[in-house]
Specification:
Residues 47-96 form the BHLH domain. By secondary structure, this protein is of the alpha+beta class. Helices cover 64% and strands 14% of the residues. The longest helix is centred in the middle third of the chain and has 68 residues, at 82-149. The two termini are 102 Å apart. Mean pLDDT is 71; it is low at 129-149.
C-alpha cells in the first residue's frame, strides 16, 4: 500500500476529483467500445478497451485502498462514502493545523516567560551577592563585641589525688564561644606536667579532665592556680566557682 501524505487538504480534494473522473472515464470507455465494435477496426479497439478497463480497475482498487487507509487515520467519519470520507479528512487536517498554531504560540510564550524569569533571577542573584557580605560584617562585629564580654563560667572544679604522684583535675564549664580554646590556653600557661587530657562536650557544658604529675601536697596549690587563671581569663568579670 502506498504511503499517504496528509500535510495539505488539497491532496484530498484532488483525490475526490480523481474518484469522480474515474466514474466518467469508465462510462466513456464503455460507449467508445460500443461505437468502435461497429467499425472496421473493431477488434483492435476492443483490445484497447479491455486494457483501459483493466487499468481503470487498478486505479479504482488503489483509490479504494487509499480511502480505507484514510478512514483508519481520521478519528471521526460521518459517512462511509468516498466523498464524505475525503471531506472529513480535510476538516480534520484543518483542525490539526489550528492546534499546531496554538501549540507554537504557547511554546513561544513559555520561552519568552523563561527568558524574563532568568533575567529576574539574575537580578536577584546580584542583590543577594551583596547582602550576605553585609550580614557577615554585622555578625563579625557582633562576635567581636561578644568575645570581649564573654566569660568562662565554671560549674564545677575538682582536684583529687590518684596514687602518690598523680592528680586529677576535673573542670566543668558552660559551653560558650571559644571555651575549648581558652581552656587549653589557660592550662598551657600554668606549665603543668600533664600526663593526659580529655575534653567531652555536652549540649550546654564542657567537661575537661586532666591527669597531672604532682604530689598530694601540691593538690591545693594546683586548685588555687587554676582558680586564679580562670579569674585572669575572665578579666574584670566576676567568676563563680561551684565545688
Amino acid at each position: 500500500m502506498e504511503s499517504i501524505n496528509v500535510e495539505s487538504p488539497k491532496y484530498w480534494e484532488s483525490l475526490l476529483l480523481q474518484a469522480e473522473e474515474l466514474d466518467c472515464d469508465y462510462l466513456n470507455g464503455a460507449f467508445s467500445a460500443y461505437d468502435d465494435s461497429s467499425s472496421r477496426a473493431g477488434r483492435q479497439s476492443s483490445m484497447t478497451t479491455k486494457n483501459n478497463i483493466v487499468s481503470e480497475r487498478n486505479r479504482r482498487r488503489k483509490l479504494t485502498e487509499k480511502i480505507y487507509a484514510l478512514r483508519l487515520v481520521v478519528p471521526k467519519i460521518t459517512k462511509m462514502d468516498k466523498e464524505s470520507t475525503i471531506k472529513d479528512a480535510i476538516e480534520y487536517i484543518q483542525k490539526l493545523h489550528e492546534e499546531e498554531g496554538k501549540i507554537q504560540a504557547e511554546i513561544s510564550d513559555l520561552e519568552s516567560a523563561g527568558r524574563s524569569s532568568k533575567c529576574t533571577n539574575f537580578q536577584f542573584d546580584q542583590e543577594a551577592a551583596f547582602k550576605p557580605k553585609r550580614i557577615r560584617t554585622q555578625e563579625h562585629f557582633h562576635d567581636f563585641q561578644g568575645s570581649s564580654s564573654s566569660r568562662t563560667e565554671v560549674i564545677e572544679l575538682r582536684v583529687s589525688s590518684m596514687g602518690e604522684n598523680t592528680v586529677i583535675i576535673s573542670l566543668i564549664c558552660s559551653k560558650r564561644t571559644d571555651t575549648m580554646v581558652k581552656l587549653n590556653e589557660m592550662f598551657e600557661s600554668l606549665n603543668l606536667k600533664i600526663i593526659s587530657a580529655n575534653i567531652t562536650a555536652f549540649s550546654d557544658s564542657i567537661l575537661k579532665t586532666i591527669f597531672v604529675q604532682a604530689d598530694e601536697k601540691e593538690k591545693d596549690l594546683l586548685k588555687i592556680k587554676i582558680e586564679t587563671a580562670i579569674v585572669a581569663l575572665n578579666g574584670s568579670h566576676k567568676t563563680n566557682f561551684n565545688f
